[in-house]
Amino acid sequence: MGTPLSPRDVQVEEVLDRLYEEYPDSTISLRYSNRLELLIAVILSAQCTDERVNTVCADLFETYRTPEEYANAPQEELAEAISSITYYNNKAKYIRSACADIAEKHDGEVPDTMSELTDLAGVGRKTANVVLQHGHDIVEGIVVDTHVQRISRRLGITEEERPGTIERDLLGIVPEEHWQQFTHLFIDHGRATCTAINPDCADCVLADICPSEKGDSTVDLASGDTW
C-alpha cells in the first residue's frame, strides 16, 4: 500500500511532477480544426472512445461544415452518419438542436461562456470546459471525466464521488496553471496504467504514494470495492 503525501496539495504537486515527466506530450486526443468540430466531437465522445469518435468525425466533418447544415440535416440521416457511436440517436438530436441554437442565437459562432455553452443541448459542464479550454483558450475549471474521477479518488486526492463535487474539490487544491493539463495527464495515465479494471500497479510511477496500490491495499478507493 502506498502512502499518500500530506496535506493534499503536496500530494497533488508530487503527482503532477511525476505525470508531467511520464507523459511530456500529454494533450487532447480528439481531432478537430475549428470550434464547431470540437464541440461536436466532445458531444460524441461521451461514453465513447476518442479513437472511435475521430474515425467517425473524419467523414462527418467532410459532410457537414456549418451549424446550419447540422441543424437542417434530417434526424435519420445524421443518426446514420454517427451510428457506430454510443447513443447515436440521442447525440444526433443534441447536435441538431445545439447547432440550431448556435445558428439562430449566436450568429453561427460557438459561444465562449460557460452559461451559454451549457444552455446548448447535450452540453454539460465537462463538455463546456473542454470547448472553452481548447476552442477559446479560456480555462475556468477542470474537466472531470471518468479517468479523473477514478484516479483522483484512488490517489486519495478527493473523497467526493460525483463529477461536479469532485471538480469543486479539485479547484481548491490544484494550482490554476495546471487545471487544463491535470485532466490530460490523468487521462493518459488512466489509459496506459491506472485502468478501471486490473490497473498495472506494479509498473505505476505513483504506486508508492497511492493508497489504493494493489500490493498491500485491499480496497480500490475509486469504487470502495475490494481488489
Automatic annotation (TrEMBL):
Cofactor field: [4Fe-4S] cluster
EC number(s) given by UniProt: 4.2.99.18
Residues reported in the UniProt entry to bind [4Fe-4S] cluster: 194, 201, 204, 210
Source organism superkingdom: Archaea
InterPro entries given in the database record: DNA_glycosylase, Endonuclease3_FeS-loop_motif, HhH-GPD_domain, HhH_base_excis_C, HhH_motif, Nth
Pfam family, one: HhH-GPD
GO biological processes: base-excision repair, AP site formation
Entry keyword set: 4Fe-4S, DNA damage, DNA repair, DNA-binding, Endonuclease, Glycosidase, Hydrolase, Iron, Iron-sulfur, Lyase, Metal-binding, Nuclease
Reaction catalysis annotation: Hydrolyzes mismatched double-stranded DNA and polynucleotides, releasing free thymine; 2'-deoxyribonucleotide-(2'-deoxyribose 5'-phosphate)-2'-deoxyribonucleotide-DNA = a 3'-end 2'-deoxyribonucleotide-(2,3-dehydro-2,3-deoxyribose 5'-phosphate)-DNA + a 5'-end 5'-phospho-2'-deoxyribonucleoside-DNA + H(+)
Start and end residues of each HhH-GPD domain: 44-192
Family: Belongs to the Nth/MutY family.
PANTHER family tied to this protein: A/G-SPECIFIC ADENINE GLYCOSYLASE/ENDONUCLEASE III, ENDONUCLEASE III
Physiological role: DNA repair enzyme that has both DNA N-glycosylase activity and AP-lyase activity. The DNA N-glycosylase activity releases various damaged pyrimidines from DNA by cleaving the N-glycosidic bond, leaving an AP (apurinic/apyrimidinic) site. The AP-lyase activity cleaves the phosphodiester bond 3' to the AP site by a beta-elimination, leaving a 3'-terminal unsaturated sugar and a product with a terminal 5'-phosphate.
Name the record gives this protein: Endonuclease III
